[in-house]
Structure formats: structure tokens, C-alpha cells
Amino acid sequence: MTAPGIVSERAGGVQPLVNPAALQVLAEDVGPETAASFSRAFVRLWPRRRDSLIAALRQDDYAAAHDAALSLRTSSAMVGASRLAGLAGQLERCLRAEGTAAAARFLPSILECGPPTLSRLSNDSGREPEKSAAPGDPRTAQARGEDRAGRHTRCAASPGSALPKENGGR
């Protein structure tokens, strides 16, 4: 079973950038104010989580990389950042199976997906999640990061190839 908004890789689906249903579940569980606070905290803590993951992978520190990936995956899932949660989960599984060097290939996708996710969460924070659009509605494809033809346009779920440069560049 997957968390709300996490599309199983076996299903071959593209995970939404942010899943309004997961945000709604969180609001129902803890109240709208607390859910909005969690969302704001996720946005505020992104740089620390991102930098911890980069440093751990760069230093070939398995334990720190596992901790950073787990933190990113669980916090992302909690606030409905489904695509980030999925990417962090892929990195985590690769880390366990193949080690830090192999897992680092997922980092560019995570770094690409972070800013639009933060933007979306910042815009949605404290508001009621909007109703999902019908399957044929262009807003549905846009929320999944697809163009009108169904081509993936942002936050690639496929692994990247390199660690960011030491100076913080990409």
C-alpha cells in the first residue's frame, strides 16, 4: 500500500507534484492550522534537507545519506509532495541496493523537483486544497507536469547523472 498521492512505480504512473488529497487528509488528521504549519515548515527546512543529502552523497556517507533520504521521503509524503517523496524513495532503495555512488544519480531529479514543489506548497499553505480536475481537464495534466500531449515537462522522475558542483552550482 502506498501513501496518499504516491503512485506505485509498478503502476507506471507519474506522481503529482503536490497531491491535494494528501494535504486534505493531513488537515483532517491534525487540523487546518497545523497542516498549514507543517507545510510551511517543510518549505523552510528544504534547504537543510537538500544540503544534508548532497553532503552525505558527496562524502560517500551511507548512514547520513540514508537518514537524509528517509527524512525527505517521509516529510514529503506527509505534506503531499508526492513526486519528491517518490524520488526520495527511489534514491533510498537504490542506496540500499547499490550504495551512495549509484544513489547519487537520483539527486539531480530531486534538486529539479524541489523548487516547483516548494512554490506549490507555499501557494497552497493555509488554503483549502482545490478540487481535483476531471481526467480530461488540462489542469490535471498540468498538475502532473505534463503538456497537452501527455509528455512529461518538469521534475523528471528519471534519475539524473551527477552530483552538484562543490560550490553549490548545478
Rg (C-alpha, Å): 16 Å
Structural class: mainly alpha
Q: How many beta-strand segments?
A: 0
Describe the global form. Answer: elongated
The main β sheet shows up as: none
What is the rounded distance between the termini? 35 Å
Strand content: under 5%
The percent of residues in helical segments reads: 55-70%
The poorly predicted ranges are: 1-11, 126-162
Summed over residues and divided by their number, the pLDDT gives a mean of 77
What is the multimeric organization of the chains shown? single chain
SSE order, as H and E? HHHHHHH
- Tally of contiguous helical segments: 7
Give your account of this protein's structure:
With 170 residues, this protein is an all-alpha fold. Helix content is 59%, strand content 0%. It has helices at residues 20-30, 32-58, 62-79, 82-98, 100-103, 107-124, 138-143. α2 packs antiparallel against α3 and α2 packs antiparallel against α6 (107-124). It is elongated, with a radius of gyration of 16 Å. The relative contact order is 0.18.
Brief summary:
This protein is mostly helical. It has helices at residues 20-30, 32-58, 62-79, 82-98, 100-103, 107-124, 138-143. The protein has seven helices and no strands.
